[in-house]
Amino acid sequence: MSISKIFFICAVFMCTGLSAQYQMKTLTSQKGVSIRAMSVPSEKVIWASASKGMVAKSTNEGASFEWMQVKGYEKRDFRAMHAWNDQEAIIVAVASPAIILKTMDGGATWDKVYENNDTSMFLDAIHFSDNNNGTVIGDPIDGHLFILTTNNKGATWDKIPNDFFKSTLNNGEAFFASSNSNLIHLGKVLVFVTGGLSSRIWINGMAEAMPMMQGTNSTGANSIAISPNGNRVVVVGGDFANDTIANQNIVGYQLFQTPNSDLKYLSKKQIIWKKIKLSNPNGYKSSVEFIDNNRLITCGTSGVDFSKDNGASWETISKASFHIAKKHPTKRGAYLAGSGGRISFVEL
After folding, report:
1. What 3 state SS string does 216-273 have?
2. Residue 174 phi/psi, 5° resolution?
3. Residue 281: phi, psi to the nearest 5?
């Protein structure tokens, strides 16, 4: 059983107080529903995808939400999504059959743009590098990580050939479908993180070791984020089965671009990666997000932590359990989502 399938079965919920210094407001909730993916394409628009075939959307900055259940997919868990605006969005279901759906009318109808009936399929996350080009990653099939790409806003998808991978997959190495945030793009460079018995960072198909907790099916990296200026990358994770352990749950990198290189068109040879020492946040974390070039928020079943100094130190601002964090496009704050269909906003 893959680590994603194990994480798919396991769920932990806890909800306790918030630090008095920070103001958190619950915007919506939906009993029995777990949110693992959010997309915030503009100041007013918020999307979230969840279990039981549920999707939530707000067009007024979270003042109200419309909850909709995707017809025909009431038992599916949509743990990955991307939205372009209030009308156009794409959602990805975990487990088999692998399904990718797209709406062009605000969620009123959904078209199937990809299906794979292989019983081993488990798609984990989606990320778009620009308006048209996107990537979906999934657990290993026949000894290779499964990656799909699109160049037409998700209308069609193609599998990346196995020769893309320069490194061999380790035993027990796969992905966590915990927060739709374990991959990023640096120009033309695809970067993602794996977890499980082996947890590594993969840069354009080549894997490098990370000092991240690993060795069991519940350990490893869950989320990766890059600063707005492209100079720093942070990876978080830990052990979701023992979420109070605050050790080897974060890895940081300082990025150096070669002279005259453009972030938008970077190749792997134009980036120098240097590990930097960061403080450990409190316990297991499933999501990390840069608020700006200096401030970070990270969350998990262990609570919500905030850093004002690029991860050099952390403070726990809430002990409430959340799976994913997304920054507000313009305000000093972030949206958080998790179990019980909860979406909250915290001012930072």
Report:
1. CCCEEEEEEEECCCCCEEEEEEEECCCCCCCCCCEEEEEEEECCCCCHHHCCHHHEEE
2. -155, -155
3. -70, 175
| Whole-angstrom distance, CA of residue 81 vs CA of residue 92 | 6
What is the distance between the alpha carbons of residues 309 and 279, in angstroms, rounded to a whole number? 10
- The amino acid occupying position 12 is V
Sign of CA dihedral 175, 344, 231, 307: negative
Q: pLDDT tens digits, residue range 7-24? A: 554 443 334 456 668 889
**Which runs of consecutive H residues, i.e. helices, occur in the chain?**
3-9
Q: What count of residues does the chain have?
A: 348
CATH superfamily of 21-347: YVTN repeat-like/Quinoprotein amine dehydrogenase (2.130.10.10)
Question: Which tokens belong to 340?
Answer: 């019980």
Lookup: tokens for 301: 């079943």
Amino acid at 223: S
State pTM to two decimals: 0.92
Question: What is the tens place of the pLDDT at every residue in 203-231?
Answer: 999 999 999 999 999 999 999 999 999 99
